[in-house]
Amino acid sequence: MSRQPDPSRRSEQSRQAILAAAADLCMEIGYAATTVEAIAARAGVGKQTIYRWWPSKAAVLLEYMRRIRDARLGFADTGDVRADLLAQTTAVQTLFGTNLGAVWRGLLIAAQSDDVAAGDVRAFLEVAVTEAKARLAKAQQAGELRADADLDMTVEIIFGPLYHAWLLRARPLPEAYMKDVLDLVFDGLKPGEGGTAAPQG
């Protein structure tokens, strides 16, 4: 008796093929030149198959990025917040220098003119922001950071320079770029003169 094909398995194989095709095209020819038609041709599926699962190429690429993010470990917690932030931001800087950076750059550019893409990109970023704020809050409670530091603003100050330099391509980023950024930031975040430590106990 022959086994019947598993529709769910075939469906997941098609999804994987579409995600890989979208990412490969974006890396090869850029976000603007990547189209749903081209993705469908590369993946060996019909356009209607893509539109059944995603409303746009941005949505396809965001799912690709989301799967990569979810497969990785979350924000490190070694007990040294400065070291953890350096590890996290250096990993982001490294990603920006890979082909995945081209995918992310395209999505960020699309978000400037596409309200739907903008909402999806914000939701994607919110996961990373929430993880960073949770780690910073723990550092506040441990007395590593000023208790009065605004954590939303702190995240923007830490990650903002990296995004600014990368998106504007203002200058080549040295390997120690984020170490230098954090050295400057932590002069203002550490407890002591100009700030207070979180109460203990």
TrEMBL record:
GO molecular function, one term: DNA-binding transcription factor activity
Residues in HTH tetR-type domain copies: 12-72
Positions of transmembrane segments: none
InterPro entries with a match to the protein in the record: Homeodomain-like_sf, HTH-type_TetR-like_transc_reg, HTH_TetR, Tet_transcr_reg_TetR-rel_C_sf, TetR_C
Gene3D superfamilies (alphabetical): Homeodomain-like, Tetracycline Repressor, domain 2
Highest taxon, organism lineage: Bacteria
DNA-binding region: 35-54
Keyword vocabulary terms for this entry: DNA-binding, Transcription, Transcription regulation
Short name of any one Pfam family annotated for the protein: TetR_C_11
Alphabetized PANTHER family for the sequence: HTH-TYPE TRANSCRIPTIONAL REGULATOR RUTR, TETR-FAMILY TRANSCRIPTIONAL REGULATOR
Full protein name: TetR family transcriptional regulator
Species this protein is from: Catellatospora bangladeshensis
